[in-house]
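User: Could you write out the 3D structure of this protein bound to zinc ion? I've included everything you need below.
Assistant: Certainly. Input first, then the structure.
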Amino acid sequence: MASTALELARRAHEDIERLERRACRALTSESASATHKGRLTANRLASGLVEAAADRAKRLRAVYDDADGSMAEEKASMGDGEDARMALRAFYETVKRTRASYEGRESDVANDGEAFLDEIEQSLEDPSAAFSGEENLGRCLDLHESHATFSNATFGERCDYSQYLARCGDFASIARTKKFCSAYTEYLDALLAYLVSFHERAMPLQFVGEALERDAEAFEARWTKGECVGWEDRGVRAVDEKMMKSSSADLSAFSSIEEMRAALDVDGVKSALESMGLKMGGTPEQRCERLWSVKGKKLSEIDKKLFAKGVVVDLKKKSSKGDDVAKAEARAKMVARKESQCAEALRLLGKQLDATRTNVEKKSTLSLAELQAEAEEDDDFSDAETDEEEEIYNPLKLPLGWDGKPIPYWLYKLHGLNMEYTCEICGNYSYWGRRAFERHFTEWRHQHGMRCLKIPYTRAFNEVVSIADARALHANLSQRDDGSFDVALDAEVEDTHGNVYNKKTYEDLKRQGLL
Ligand SMILES: [Zn+2]
């Protein structure tokens, strides 16, 4: 049944459709947007499904291409639609074949066609297995290996991990002369391979390969224009007689190698070698000997092996020079291209690199005990994150309690928080609940409102919320008291618990020892 070309094609179309739908469902599911792990799992699943769909599309293409002509044969056997008898005969023949193929399988349970999707889903490993502990589910990079290589290599220097993280993308700071060794190329290769593999694991739906290809094209353009940082001269440094003469050390001033060694310190020898374009490796002894060996020689007489890589000796002989230049440039370009690729990969992972730096800094400030506590907390942390990102169901718009969750409805009713009180003196500010309303009379907002009305606040004004009422009461009171202010009755006093009394009551209570 499934052997006919048309059926194969139909089946492939169906599978692709199902794969697309499942991928869509995975990406739009709630868990995919809630947490980092949910997002990662969904992305990995979608990537697996898309891969399977692409695989089926390839096979479908082959069916349509119809290399062995079976599709065309099948179509021909169905007739062209003109001859009804021929078409019917083909139809009944197919029915007969179908019946025969299902003979004796009546008890089989029909497959809903989605089983293979579940298989793909189950075949994907848990995302936590794909990442090392340091990588923390793709949140951070683990560059310890590159760091170890870098701090032990001649092109690098000893530095701690956080320093390395700060400078790992800065290839221009590495001296050019140290870049032409195979160790450096291997270092770049390993770094790039790690970054690409991390990118693929952490962001399976983004095509890091394409981004790198784009960068490679951009690199070609930059290289031609000489815009690559640190490679502006395209890796070719020509040395001629004039340069040798104007080098930092005047060797003719010394009569012996000992004299030279005494006059020039280690750095002096180094800089002299560099300005002449000579190799700078080896022990201080070897460097001295190398420098001495070129004393008084013409450029053409110096052994070519003594020159550093990337240095082209200008002998004003066009043919040999052209060759050397091309060779030097090709080598420099290869290194520069690798650097550019690594830099691009690091740029794509900028967020993760930042997270790594922060993480390392944070860890360096913690003690061992705190680190252990943190590791134990890590699992809780991911749960806490889930809660935080989860939307809280709050249809009644209940106020939030101290734990950030809405308070229970019965508590809400009990406190009368559904009752709104507005106060004109407070500029029509609303207070929710009787308690908040009562308390507000002694709070700053109401007191400020009263001061603006130039009415001294006394207990008599409690519960007065309209400006007109307050004014009338004030006029009334001032008439009655003749405007005098009775300290014992009108002054407000507060006890340590924040209760407000007039001075007389306060002193009475205090005398009785009730405060
Ligand atoms: Zn008020």
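Confidence is low (pLDDT under 50) at residues 379-389.
User: Perfect, thank you.
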